[in-house]
């Protein structure tokens, strides 16, 4: 079972546990499917301590804003310091939504440098890492009018062109494949059938299947769990908010951690 102690400020100070550590980071796809992702991860490795950094429009490297909400970048977030404070144990990680920063105008070298920061921290933790590849084909087949409409909805303050987007997607994808050359980093290309009108976000019916596929390589590494009481767990997970979330410039003191029915703990950064 997981055991933890907290200091006066409520931070995790020390932890001992028999469960695995699982790091899940990304933007919209992970945020929309977080309960499903956590279920799939528990089915793969059993009871776990989850470290999550996600959110609509979240950047890997810089503070991002969606309407009146801001979140810190994933690489500089508090997640990594808290991960280092836990006792060593079997560690797994998913890095997804990496192409999100292209829409903010960042070049591939900068985006990959943020990914490298995450991979370095995960390598220090001895993690097995799964990276989801960018949906290259979907963007190439996207009609120009639909691209402009989606760009206006997803990145209203930025004007990256479709040709720039495709070029940068290829460059980042190539860089990710190079980084997945080692035994502890695996890259998975999403199935084109998972996407529809929107070539970036996985359609709702395919989300459970997608995360099962992402974590398939973890099978056999731990004690797979029979997930029960999913509805209460899903409600608890959906109520969580990142610890450093700001609304209208002010930090909001929302709940950012919960314990699930199987003893797993989820912390959102």
What does this structure look like?
By secondary structure, the chain is an alpha/beta fold. Helices cover 34% and strands 19% of the residues. The chain has helices at 28-32, 34-45, 79-85, 108-124, 136-140, 144-154, 162-179, 207-214, 230-238, and strands at residues 3-6, 12-16, 20-25, 48-53, 64-66, 69-71, 91-95, 128-132, 185-188, 246-247, 250-251, 257-259, 265-268. The protein has a seven-stranded mixed sheet, sandwiched between helices. It has a four-stranded antiparallel sheet with strand order 5-6-10-11, with no helix packed on it. Strands 1-2 form a two-stranded antiparallel ribbon. Helix 2 packs parallel to helix 8.
Mean pLDDT metric: 87
Estimated structural class? alpha/beta
Spans with pLDDT under 50 lasting ≥5 residues? 3-18
Q: What sequence of helices (H) and strands (E) makes up the elements?
A: EEEHHEEEHEHEHHHEHHEEEE
In which range does the helix fraction lie? 25-40%
How much strand content do the residues show?
15-25%
Total beta strands:
13
Strand order of the largest sheet: 9-8-7-3-4-13-12
What is this structure, in a nutshell?
The protein is 34% helix and 19% strand. It has 269 residues and is of the alpha/beta class. The strands form 3 sheets. Strands 9-8-7-3-4-13-12 form a 7-stranded mixed β-sheet, sandwiched between helices. Strands 5-6-10-11 form a 4-stranded antiparallel β-sheet, with no helix packed on it. It has a two-stranded antiparallel sheet with strand order 1-2.
